[in-house]
Amino acid sequence: MASGVPFHYVDLRAFCYATEDEKRVADALSTFLPDTDEEEPPLARDETEGFHGDRILVLSARLERADEMRHVLSKLTDLDDIETVIEELDQRVDEDCTFFLTLDKQAAFRGEVKRGDGITLRAKVEAYPAKKESAVENVRETLEELRAA
Protein backbone atom coordinates (compact mmCIF):
# COMPACT_ATOMS: atom_id res chain seq x y z
CA MET A 1 0.00 0.00 0.00
CA ALA A 2 2.19 2.74 -1.34
CA SER A 3 -0.13 5.56 -0.31
CA GLY A 4 -0.36 4.40 3.30
CA VAL A 5 -3.53 3.69 5.22
CA PRO A 6 -6.57 5.82 4.39
CA PHE A 7 -7.85 5.89 7.99
CA HIS A 8 -7.28 8.12 10.99
CA TYR A 9 -8.26 5.17 13.23
CA VAL A 10 -10.19 1.90 13.26
CA ASP A 11 -12.54 1.02 16.14
CA LEU A 12 -13.58 -2.58 16.77
CA ARG A 13 -16.35 -3.35 19.25
CA ALA A 14 -18.24 -6.40 20.46
CA PHE A 15 -20.86 -6.88 23.13
CA CYS A 16 -20.45 -9.69 25.63
CA TYR A 17 -23.86 -10.62 26.98
CA ALA A 18 -24.42 -12.28 30.37
CA THR A 19 -24.85 -15.65 28.62
CA GLU A 20 -21.48 -15.38 26.84
CA ASP A 21 -17.95 -16.14 27.99
CA GLU A 22 -15.91 -12.92 28.06
CA LYS A 23 -12.71 -14.73 27.02
CA ARG A 24 -14.41 -16.19 23.93
CA VAL A 25 -15.72 -12.75 22.90
CA ALA A 26 -12.25 -11.27 23.46
CA ASP A 27 -10.75 -14.08 21.36
CA ALA A 28 -13.25 -13.34 18.58
CA LEU A 29 -12.33 -9.66 18.61
CA SER A 30 -8.61 -10.47 18.65
CA THR A 31 -9.01 -12.22 15.27
CA PHE A 32 -8.85 -8.70 13.83
CA LEU A 33 -6.08 -7.40 16.10
CA PRO A 34 -2.39 -7.70 15.30
CA ASP A 35 -0.47 -10.23 17.40
CA THR A 36 1.23 -8.80 20.45
CA ASP A 37 3.53 -10.26 23.06
CA GLU A 38 0.74 -9.84 25.60
CA GLU A 39 -1.26 -12.89 26.64
CA GLU A 40 -4.51 -10.91 26.67
CA PRO A 41 -5.47 -8.64 23.78
CA PRO A 42 -5.37 -4.92 24.71
CA LEU A 43 -9.11 -4.36 24.94
CA ALA A 44 -11.08 -1.67 26.74
CA ARG A 45 -13.89 -3.07 28.89
CA ASP A 46 -16.98 -1.03 29.70
CA GLU A 47 -19.86 -2.47 31.67
CA THR A 48 -23.43 -1.45 30.92
CA GLU A 49 -26.90 -2.78 31.60
CA GLY A 50 -29.42 -4.31 29.23
CA PHE A 51 -33.15 -3.54 29.09
CA HIS A 52 -33.95 -6.19 31.71
CA GLY A 53 -31.11 -5.28 34.04
CA ASP A 54 -28.72 -7.89 32.66
CA ARG A 55 -25.01 -7.11 32.50
CA ILE A 56 -23.53 -6.31 29.11
CA LEU A 57 -19.79 -5.92 28.74
CA VAL A 58 -18.59 -3.84 25.80
CA LEU A 59 -15.16 -4.93 24.58
CA SER A 60 -13.42 -2.54 22.22
CA ALA A 61 -10.10 -1.61 20.67
CA ARG A 62 -8.99 1.51 18.85
CA LEU A 63 -6.19 1.05 16.36
CA GLU A 64 -4.34 4.20 15.36
CA ARG A 65 -0.97 2.96 14.09
CA ALA A 66 -0.64 2.30 10.35
CA ASP A 67 0.60 -1.29 10.85
CA GLU A 68 -2.37 -2.10 13.10
CA MET A 69 -4.86 -0.68 10.61
CA ARG A 70 -3.13 -2.50 7.73
CA HIS A 71 -3.58 -5.75 9.67
CA VAL A 72 -7.34 -5.18 10.01
CA LEU A 73 -7.63 -4.28 6.33
CA SER A 74 -5.73 -7.39 5.29
CA LYS A 75 -8.19 -9.46 7.35
CA LEU A 76 -11.10 -7.89 5.44
CA THR A 77 -9.67 -9.22 2.18
CA ASP A 78 -10.39 -12.73 3.57
CA LEU A 79 -14.11 -12.00 3.20
CA ASP A 80 -15.76 -14.26 0.62
CA ASP A 81 -17.88 -11.31 -0.46
CA ILE A 82 -15.30 -8.52 -0.47
CA GLU A 83 -16.62 -7.58 -3.93
CA THR A 84 -20.04 -6.91 -2.38
CA VAL A 85 -18.47 -4.75 0.34
CA ILE A 86 -16.67 -2.73 -2.34
CA GLU A 87 -19.92 -2.36 -4.33
CA GLU A 88 -21.77 -1.21 -1.18
CA LEU A 89 -19.23 1.43 -0.13
CA ASP A 90 -21.62 4.25 -0.94
CA GLN A 91 -23.95 2.88 1.77
CA ARG A 92 -21.09 1.93 4.12
CA VAL A 93 -19.46 5.37 4.30
CA ASP A 94 -21.47 8.18 5.89
CA GLU A 95 -21.38 11.95 5.42
CA ASP A 96 -18.81 12.23 8.25
CA CYS A 97 -16.40 10.04 6.23
CA THR A 98 -16.81 7.03 8.53
CA PHE A 99 -16.74 3.50 7.11
CA PHE A 100 -18.93 0.87 8.84
CA LEU A 101 -18.93 -2.92 8.59
CA THR A 102 -20.35 -5.64 10.84
CA LEU A 103 -18.60 -8.96 11.17
CA ASP A 104 -19.70 -12.39 12.41
CA LYS A 105 -18.63 -12.86 16.05
CA GLN A 106 -19.03 -16.68 15.99
CA ALA A 107 -16.96 -17.01 12.81
CA ALA A 108 -14.30 -14.68 14.26
CA PHE A 109 -14.05 -16.91 17.34
CA ARG A 110 -13.17 -19.76 14.95
CA GLY A 111 -10.57 -17.50 13.30
CA GLU A 112 -12.70 -16.93 10.19
CA VAL A 113 -13.62 -13.59 8.64
CA LYS A 114 -17.26 -13.28 7.55
CA ARG A 115 -19.84 -10.54 7.44
CA GLY A 116 -22.57 -10.90 10.01
CA ASP A 117 -23.43 -9.68 13.47
CA GLY A 118 -21.56 -9.28 16.70
CA ILE A 119 -18.47 -7.23 15.84
CA THR A 120 -18.70 -3.66 14.62
CA LEU A 121 -15.85 -2.13 12.64
CA ARG A 122 -15.92 1.64 12.39
CA ALA A 123 -13.12 3.50 10.63
CA LYS A 124 -12.64 7.24 10.20
CA VAL A 125 -11.55 7.71 6.59
CA GLU A 126 -8.93 10.26 5.58
CA ALA A 127 -10.40 12.35 2.80
CA TYR A 128 -9.29 15.70 1.44
CA PRO A 129 -11.58 17.45 0.98
CA ALA A 130 -13.56 15.75 3.74
CA LYS A 131 -16.43 14.68 1.52
CA LYS A 132 -18.20 11.36 1.36
CA GLU A 133 -17.28 10.83 -2.31
CA SER A 134 -13.55 11.21 -1.56
CA ALA A 135 -13.82 8.85 1.43
CA VAL A 136 -15.65 6.19 -0.62
CA GLU A 137 -12.98 6.37 -3.33
CA ASN A 138 -10.15 6.10 -0.77
CA VAL A 139 -11.65 2.98 0.81
CA ARG A 140 -12.40 1.48 -2.63
CA GLU A 141 -8.82 1.99 -3.86
CA THR A 142 -7.37 0.52 -0.67
CA LEU A 143 -9.59 -2.59 -0.63
CA GLU A 144 -9.00 -3.22 -4.34
CA GLU A 145 -5.25 -2.77 -3.87
CA LEU A 146 -5.21 -5.22 -0.95
CA ARG A 147 -7.39 -7.73 -2.79
CA ALA A 148 -5.03 -7.70 -5.76
CA ALA A 149 -1.92 -8.18 -3.59
TrEMBL record:
Record InterPro entries: PAB1135-like, Ribosomal_uL5_dom_sf
Pfam families given in the database record: RNA_binding (PF01877)
NCBIfam families: PRK14555.1-1
Protein name: RNA-binding protein
